[in-house]
User: Fold this.
Amino acid sequence: MNMHSVKIVALGTIGVLATTTSTLAQFNTNPIHLTQATSFTCGPHLKTYVVRSLDNRAGTGIRCVKFSEGGAGGASIPRLAWYGEGAWGGCTYRHLGHAFYEGRMLVGSASDFHGNGECTNNNFPRNLTVRGTTPDWTVIQVTGAWNEEWRSVSSTSYRPLPRPQTCGGYLDQYRVSDLGGGRPGAGLRCMLKVGQANTTWFGNGNWNGNTYSHLGTRGNNGYGAGDICGNGFGPSCNNFGYGSLTFTPTPGGFKVTGAWSEQWRR
Assistant:
């Protein structure tokens, strides 16, 4: 990713209220098969959490969390965004989420990825309550449509799911190329529609043969992203501070400039 001078362009966010979907798992005929676990971390730019069910469901999973600057009373900047994956009762899932303060309550939204072998295909528009049960957010509880507890760890025994190739119907999907056309590579971008649209995204791909995965969202100064540097996500391990990325709408997508030089197209 090329470094350029930072130029911040405010991108208007659109509140999207999606219709509530059934939270029952929809099973794919070609489910993902989990393999032997290995040591996993989200890397130094995101916090790594392990998840357990508060209602004693069998399962395992990880959450890679990027904290932002949203505060009580302000609903345009998230307090946190996350990428999550794992399995409940042997049924694999992968999702993207973020949470915003509404008054003093932290209200979360999330959407499942689908089409890569995941069992689940659900949408959760503003029906998650997120609460840090410790001042330093080492323990987070997510209730409402979910019933989970996340605990911060330095690393955990977990083998990630295969890299996603498609986003599914609940996320806006973009294909990525170099803005100038001279850098070989391609990528996938999955952006949340629920909560606040055009705010939080997951991306992966390769530039010059080097694979990467990242999680991005907004802060007070604009957009930023952190690479997920864990096993299976790619060796790239960079951080891009809030305000270092500029999103300019184009027909069918965005130009992303500043620290990056990318064209996103549907």
Notes: The CA atoms of residues 4 and 258 lie 5 Å apart. The chain is about 0% helix and 50% strand.
